[in-house]
Structures are given as structure tokens and as C-alpha cells.
Write a structure and sequence with these properties.
heterodimer; A: about 300 residues; mainly alpha; 12 helices; globular; B: about 375 residues; two-stranded antiparallel ribbon; BCAA_transport_permease (chain A); transmembrane transporter activity (chain A)
């Protein structure tokens, strides 16, 4: 039972990190209707900046720099590439983000090489033990940070002018533009925010018990895609639920791996995708996605 | 044959003052195509093994790219799962063709190799069909993310089903034999040129590529192609005029996975060994890059893009000494593989932004301008 509780808590913590990534993904989709396949490379960029700077300027400034760096990369992608597209077809833009992803990932993995970079976090491998359950400090920090950020984001999304502008743009870009919402600024903001969230997620994907930032980190980040889509691409609630679902499934599948040996090793990495496939079979628009209504 | 064709013109009595040469004889295109064909047929007699293999990769890639272009370019359904179907084709061929009693302890059915190749393609189609409940209902980029699942499921199976796939180390590919001709390295001398596996496969690859390209062109020019374009351009309108959208999406998905399966078989035959690492997400992205660079929705675009993306790393590897910025792997500079990824990543972005329609539109520039409505 205590194993189960541990796995569940770890899963929730991991899931909240996935939710952070998925949230950024959903924000970009809502603001610009672009499915951003370059999201994993934004995350890698944030993690890389933090990893290279933390020795010189300390962990917290490095983390801030990482967040700023990823936000900057996101904004640059929007400004230099997305804005230049003159066509109307958003699925072509999704392919552009794949091109951007190839570029960014190649550059970052070339810099990282075969190294495993530490991010210099203050939690180390300390473990908190309450009764029969022990939990790494990093996991608790991940959950708290993700919860705070997500709450702050959702409040901003609801109550600030920026949030209102973004929701208006998502509702109807043309009307919003006529009402004086500057669409360029909205989508620039969306990309920057998504980058920043991804940088925070990069930190928590690479701290204990994972060894550190390496090439494969971007593969871990890809798990936020199933999280986003199984919740529904246009739903922030969906991103949260999807993230938690993916995190808990992965944690349970990894934890009970020894009982499931007939399915092969490394089941934890596969579980999110299986859950996504199962949910998409039943609800093609995701759990909370608005079912597309078409008016002719 | 020509006499038979000539008679109706004379018999019908249409006033033709002079016998003009047929229209196809006066077109430059005919001559360009003939020159290309002769060149391609002659190449094995002049090129060394390295270039022949590079060419064969390009042919296999072209077949796969035609397949994904039917799906993504013509029907507007993004797929990141193409590498999975390539893997199904490659490993399917190995399993069907290999001898079960081999020393490696891997499963093999020992079927005649050409049956194995056909079965492998069919299995890839079945795999695509199994995914059709999702492929038929999701659209565009949604499907792209959903097909990510295929990559990871594929990798999982490849690493874990050791009896079938040989696990991490992969397995050897039995050489193809057809009509008593075996495509292996036992030398066969044609016109003083020793014919190894690469030379023989070259011709098989050419025939397959030609067949695949013609079939895809037929599909695109006929009723199904119009339906597919209608689904891409306006799904609801397509449904209203009676196109069964979900069924078409599923069918195109199956067709595209069969193309991928065939490409996988050819790749396996060229490599002579299949390893699971190759069939990862990078490969899927490469295929998407090919069709975007070449031109979405066109067969020749897919071939062009495939040649560009798959020959680029080989070229850079071969000439890495002579090129600035590029250096041999492991020496600290930019490795050829990375350099080519920079180039085609940038090419994808540049093509979409500045050259909608891809490279084929450059060669056929004047036609693009006369039919602006086709742009999409």
C-alpha cells in the first residue's frame, strides 16, 4: 500500500510538471491555432541555459536566466518565423514548427553532446520520510512550483487585460483585432509564456531522481504532447488533467514494471501514449476539448 | 505497333495536309525524361558502391515520401508515425524471409523472399488499418500528435520482442531473390562491370520507384485524388458533396503505410541489417521535411525532396574535408549528419515561408503562375 501511495504522489508531482509543459502548448494553440511541435526544444533551450550558467551566477539567477532565455527563444520563433507566414493553413504552420524543432534540437543536442549536465538545484537527493512514505524533496518542490505557476497563470488568464485579450483572440481573432487587441502582441506573449513555463518544467524533469539534462530530455518532454491532446488541445483544464493522468500512469507503470515483465522493459515511457490512444478512441476531441461544431 | 496507331487517322479522312510528328515528339519534356532514364539506367556501370547505396537510399526514401505525401500533402493529415510503418516493412520482411533454423535463434518463416516482401508490405497496410479508428476521425495536427504514439509503441516492440526483431542489435536481412536472380554480393559480371548487390538492387529500386510513382499519380489524378484534395481543402464541403470523409482518411492512411512498408523493405535490403534505433522520431521528421521541401501534394515533389534530404548527409560526409565548417564526426566541429539536419531544418522553414509549393514549383514556375487557384 505504501508503495502505491508513493508511486501515486510521485506521479502527481511528475504530472504537474507535464501539465506545465502542456499548458504552454495549449496557450500557443489557443492564441494562434498553431500546434507547436517545437515545444520540446524550447524546454531543452531553457534547461541548457540554466545548466551552463548555474556554476557562475548561482542557481536561482541561473533559473531566472533559463526562463528568460526560453521565453526569448519562443518569442524569437514567433517573431522571426510564425509572423512571416502569409498563408491561411494552420497545419502547414505546424510543419514549420517541425522545421524549427529540427534546427533547435540539432543545435542543442550538439552542444550537450554525450554529457549529462547538472542544473545545480538546491534540493539534491534529500528525501522526506513521513511514516511509511518517503518522497524526494525535488518531487515536492516540483509539485509546489507547478501548482503555484499554474494558479498564477490561470488567474492571469482570467483577470488581467493580457488574459482577456488572449481569450478574445482565441474566440475570434478578427473581432478581437477590430476591438483593438493587437494580435501580434498576443501571440508573441503566448510563445514567450510557453517558453518560460517549459524552462521551469525543464528544471524539474532533470533533477533527482533523473541524472540531469541530456539529449534524451527532449524525448521526456514529448510526453507533454499526449497530455495536451488527451485533455483537449484547446482546454487549459484539459492540460492539467491530462498532465496528471500521464504523470500518474507513467509513475505506476514504471513502479509496477516488475509485475508486468511480459510487456517488456521501459513500459513507463510507453504508458502515456497508450493512455492517449485509448482516450482518443473514445473521445476524438480529448476529455475536455470542445467538440468541433461546424457551421456552413 | 505504330502502324496500328496510325491507321485511324488515315481512315477517318480528316484533312491533314502533311503528316505532322506526334505532339510528344516535339516536347522538350520527353527528351528530358528520356535522358534521365538513360542516365539512371547507365549509372551502375560507372558509379562505385558508395554512390549506388546513396542512390538506393534516395529511392527507398522517395517511395516512402510519396506515401506520406499522399497522406499529408494531398489529404492534409499530418503523420509523425511514418517511421513505424517503415519498421514494420523492414522487420516484417526479415521475419517472413529468414530461415527459422539460423544460429541467431530468431523467428523466421523461411518463405520465398519475394513473397516475404509482398507480405511485409501487406502487414504494414494492416498495421495502418488497425490505426484507422483514430486515423479516420482525427484531423491535421491532432493526428500528428496521436501518431507519435506509433513511434514509441514501435520502439518499445522493436527493443523488447527479441524473438522477432533481435532487440537492440537488430537482425540480418536475407537477400532478395527473384526469378532465380539473387540480389546478393555474389558477383555477376555484366559488360566487364562486376554486379554486386548494390548494382542489382539499383534496377529493382528503379522499377519499384517508377511503379509507385505512377500508381500514386493515378490515384491523385483520378476520383480518389480529387476527393482527397477536397477533404484537405474543405472537409465539410467534401462531406456534403458525398465524399465519405472518415473512410477516405482511413484508406489513405492504409495506402501511405503500405508505401512506407515497401520503402522499409527496400531500405532493409540496402542496409543488409536492420537496427531499431534507426526507426525513431528523427526518421519521421526527415520524411516530413522531404515532402515539405519537395512540394506538398505532388509525386515529383516527394521524389525531389527525398533525393535532397537523403543525399545531403552522404554528400556532406563524402566531402567533409573540403567543406568549411563541416568536419568528421568526433573531432569537435559540426558533424556531417548535424550539418545536413541544419540545412534541411532551415530548408523546411524557408520553403514554407518563401516558396509555398516547394521545389517542384521552381522547376514548374510558369505553370504555378497560370493556375494561382491551385495554391494551397
Amino acid at each position: 500500500m505504501s508503495t502505491f501511495a508513493e508511486l501515486l504522489l510521485n506521479g502527481v508531482s511528475l504530472g504537474s510538471v507535464y501539465a506545465l509543459i502542456a499548458l504552454g502548448f495549449v496557450v500557443i494553440f489557443r492564441a494562434t491555432e498553431v500546434v507547436n511541435f517545437a515545444h520540446a526544444s524550447l524546454l531543452l533551450a531553457g534547461g541548457y541555459v540554466t545548466a551552463t550558467l548555474h556554476d557562475d551566477i548561482g542557481f536561482w539567477p541561473a533559473l531566472l536566466a533559463g526562463i528568460a532565455g526560453a521565453a526569448l527563444v519562443g518569442a524569437a520563433v514567433e517573431f522571426l518565423v510564425m509572423r512571416r507566414y502569409r498563408g491561411a493553413d494552420h497545419s502547414v504552420l505546424a510543419i514549420v514548427t517541425i522545421g524549427v524543432d529540427i534546427l533547435l534540437t540539432t543545435e542543442l543536442t550538439r552542444r550537450i553532446g554525450t554529457d549529462v549536465l547538472a542544473l545545480g538545484d538546491p534540493w539534491g537527493d534529500a528525501v522526506l520520510t513521513v511514516g511509511p512514505i518517503s518522497l524526494a524533496h525535488t518531487r515536492i518542490a516540483a509539485f509546489v512550483a507547478a501548482a503555484l505557476l499554474i494558479t498564477a497563470f490561470l488567474l492571469a488568464f482570467r483577470y488581467t487585460t493580457w488574459g482577456v485579450a488572449m481569450r478574445a483572440a482565441a474566440e475570434s481573432a478578427e473581432t478581437a483585432a477590430l476591438m483593438g487587441v493587437r494580435l501580434g502582441r498576443v501571440s508573441l506573449g503566448a510563445w514567450a509564456v510557453a517558453g518560460g513555463l517549459a524552462a521551469v518544467a525543464a528544471l524539474f524533469l532533470t533533477v533527482f531522481p533523473t541524472p540531469g539534462l541530456e539529449r534524451a530530455t527532449s524525448l521526456a518532454a514529448l510526453k507533454a504532447f499526449p497530455a495536451a491532446i488527451l485533455g483537449g488541445l484547446d482546454s487549459t483544464t484539459g492540460a492539467l488533467v491530462g498532465g496528471l493522468l500521464v504523470g500518474v500512469t507513467e509513475s505506476l507503470a514504471t513502479g509496477y514494471q516488475s509485475d508486468l515483465t511480459f510487456l517488456g522493459r521501459g513500459l513507463g515511457d510507453l504508458a502515456p501514449y497508450l493512455v492517449m490512444t485509448a482516450i482518443l478512441l473514445i473521445r476524438p476531441a480529448g476529455l475536455f476539448g470542445t467538440k468541433e461544431l461546424a457551421r456552413v | 505497333m505504330s502502324e496500328v496507331l496510325a491507321t485511324p487517322g488515315e481512315a477517318s479522312g480528316t484533312p491533314r495536309p502533311t503528316r505532322r510528328r506526334p505532339a510528344w515528339l516535339t516536347r522538350t519534356r520527353t527528351y528530358v525524361w528520356t535522358a534521365c532514364a538513360v542516365l539512371l539506367l547507365a549509372l551502375p556501370f560507372y558509379l562505385d558502391r558508395f554512390w549506388l547505396q546513396a542512390g538506393l537510399f534516395a529511392m527507398a526514401a522517395a517511395i516512402g515520401a510519396i506515401g506520406i505525401n499522399l497522406l499529408t500533402g494531398s489529404t492534409g493529415q499530418l503523420s509523425l508515425g511514418h517511421a513505424f510503418f517503415l519498421a514494420v516493412g523492414a522487420y516484417g520482411y526479415c521475419v517472413f524471409a529468414a530461415d527459422g533454423g539460423g544460429g541467431d535463434g530468431l523467428t523466421g518463416l523461411g518463405l520465398p523472399t519475394w513473397i516475404a516482401a509482398v507480405l511485409a508490405v501487406l502487414v504494414a497496410g494492416v498495421a495502418g488499418g488497425l490505426f484507422s479508428p483514430i486515423a479516420g476521425r482525427l484531423q491535421g495536427a491532432y493526428l500528428g500528435i496521436a501518431t507519435l504514439a506509433l513511434i514509441f509503441i514501435g520502439q518499445h516492440v522493436l527493443f523488447n520482442a527479441r524473438d522477432l526483431t533481435g532487440g537492440f542489435n537488430g537482425r540480418d536481412v536475407p537477400p532478395l531473390s527473384l526469378f532465380g536472380l539473387t540480389f546478393d554480393d555474389r558477383e555477376l559480371v555484366v559488360a566487364d562491370v562486376p554486379f554486386g548487390s548494390a548494382e542489382k538492387l539499383w534496377y529493382a529500386g528503379l522499377v519499384l520507384l517508377l511503379g509507385c510513382a505512377l500508381f500514386a499519380r493515378g490515384v491523385l489524378r483520378g476520383r480518389p485524388g480529387r476527393a482527397m484534395n477536397a477533404i484537405r481543402d474543405h472537409r465539410i464541403a467534401a462531406g456534403v458533396i458525398g465524399v465519405p470523409v472518415a473512410r477516405y482518411r482511413a484508406a489513405v492512411f492504409v495506402l501511405s503505410s503500405m508505401y512506407a512498408g515497401l520503402a522499409g523493405v527496400l531500405l532493409a535490403l540496402v542496409f543488409q541489417r536492420t537496427v531499431p534505433d534507426y526507426f525513431g522520431i528523427t526518421l519521421s521528421l526527415e520524411y516530413l521535411a522531404m515532402i515539405v521541401i519537395g512540394g506538398l501534394g505532388s509525386v515529383s515533389g516527394a521524389v525531389l525532396g527525398a533525393a535532397f534530404v537523403s543525399l545531403l548527409p552522404q554528400l556532406l560526409t563524402r566531402y567533409s574535408d573540403a567543406l568549411p565548417l563541416v568536419s568528421a564526426p568526433g573531432t569537435g566541429g559540426i558533424a556531417p549528419g548535424e550539418a545536413s539536419r541544419y540545412l534541411y531544418g532551415a530548408a523546411v522553414v524557408a520553403v514554407v515561408l518563401f516558396l509555398p509549393g516547394g521545389l517542384v514549383r521552381v522547376t514548374a514556375g510558369h505553370r504555378a503562375r497560370t493556375h494561382p487557384g491551385e495554391e494551397r
